[in-house]
Amino acid sequence: MTRRSEQISLHLNAYLTAHSTPPDAVLRELATETAELYPNEVGLQVAPELGTLLTLLTRLARARSAIEVGTFTGYSSICLARGLAGDGKLLCCDVSQEWTSVARKYWEKAGLTDRIELRLGGALDTIRALPDEGLFDVAFIDADKLSYPKYWTELVPRVRPGGVIMVDNTFSHGRVLDAGNDNPSVIAVRTMNDLAAADDRVELVMIPIGDGLTVALRH
After folding, report:
1. What's this model's pTM, rounded to 2 decimal places?
2. Which site among 47, 58, 162, 175 is 20 to 30 Å from 209 CA-CA?
């Protein structure tokens, strides 16, 4: 991820954020602490404008159940959980006890502890242990890029018709355009993008926000 939308200029990005609903004090504090604790990994946190979009799309979907694959320190999970209906639940999948301990602290500060369940371990194992179809109203994928095609394959049938699937980093910092790029992560993202574009179970659009966000509506 990135802390700003990459595909537009710094000046236009500043204008964009100035004319979008800003993050509140909890999210600002979380972003600051994440940068202090993990300066080398801070790019794993979503851009503020993307966080706002996650909340809005989840709310527009009238979602009561959601899954997030890749939680890091919890910024995007707070945004998703805030978009859920009053009794909604978010399932978070991550492998890091350390990073998600920060997330737990901020879930509590945001008053969202009762809405969020964290399952530590391989996300594919967690997903495959769930019922086979129609389980979630919203899915957000933002974890290890090598597994992107598998996440897509496993999650699409588990999202109900009319539900929304969102996938971050689908531009791979612009590298998806370089057919000669043999980086395994870039190849995996490109493969997932092709899978999604050819998937007749969804309608979708790529949005140039953050590092590219694919938003798909499940038929």
Report:
1. 0.96
2. 162
